[in-house]
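Lab notebook, bench 4. We co-purified these components, and the gel suggests they stay together. Before we commit to crystallization screens, I want a quick structural picture of the whole thing.
Request: model the full complex, all chains together.
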Amino acid sequence: MTTIQEQVSRYGYVTEKVSEHIDLIAEINRLKIEKNAVILAHYYVDGAIQDLADYIGDSLGLSQQAAATEAEMIVFCGVHFMGETAKILSPNKKVVIPDMNAGCSLADSAPADKFAAFKAQHPDHIVISYINCSAEIKALTDIVCTSSNALQIVESLPKDQKIIFAPDANLGRYVAQKTGRDMVLWDGACIVHIDISREKLAQLRVEHPDALLIAHPECKEDILLQSDFVSSTTGLLKFVKASNHQKFIVATEAGILHKMKESVPGKKLIPAPGSDNNTCACSECPYMKMNTLEKVYNALRYEQPEIHVPEDIRLKAYGSLERMLELSKGI
Ligand code: 13P
Ligand code: SF4
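Here is the predicted assembly.
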């Protein structure tokens, strides 16, 4: 018999088997009330988890919720850096995530020691970091941004301000092109968005000439250049709702289609496929898909795995997130 703590340190999540007689959704809702917990979910997690969440959103919306909630516990269904961000913003709340292994290729691309050395080579630069990074990188950052506010945050700085943008080079290049700013880019990428297949996308565009192509700015430059609209997940969702068009090719993680289909039931939404021939013919984030109903239930029940951030790092990271939230009021 392993203890819950041993399960978490060995496997990264509570491996306790859940009885098949349990109604997981009813139990999650009961535990949520009993423990005064709130469930936050990103648009990329499984639809069943989105459906039971108290709030579903993009990285900016989720951070705003994490900072504002009055719940005692936050169950963050997304990836590790999102849970960490919630803990940085709400240090007195217990923050649990369903699976500690749910990382992010962008966050992994920027180890703190290498990034500190890179920053030291550019002493007169301000550091803007995409929220998809570790607490240590946020602590080395002046202002955090998300794909919803990156343009505004860069534009809020004086034109001659030298900027390091990390860790997503595709988002950084896109922002540099849009704002006309010359930024030093860290060379990180999202494994999901850069894997969207150019060939399969071209084929889809031939098959659906009447579809608009909408894309997340983590996609490669050639996809962004041919897109009719580029934005964060929330931005893409709002766009399909407001547009008069009836057909869209959606170049981002397929989880967003769950809310999109619900919001615009009559419109045709076609996911942009990745390079492998998976059964969904779409692009899926393996980390986001580590969130399962069973793990959500166990995380809520056993209050594990819990996110901890050392206080010295947290305080510095809090400053860069606070500046972002301040500059994002009204978004
Ligand atoms: P947004 O939801 O903020 O657009 O971010 C997308 C993403 O890749 C999150 O990991
Ligand atoms: Fe990270 Fe990309 Fe997955 Fe988002 S979709 S969590 S950026 S790997």
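The first helix runs from residue 4 to 11. Worth comparing against the SEC data before the next meeting. The pocket of 1,3-dihydroxyacetonephosphate (ligand 1) is lined by residues 43, 58-59, 132, 146-148, 190, 216, 218, 232-233 (CB under 6 Å).
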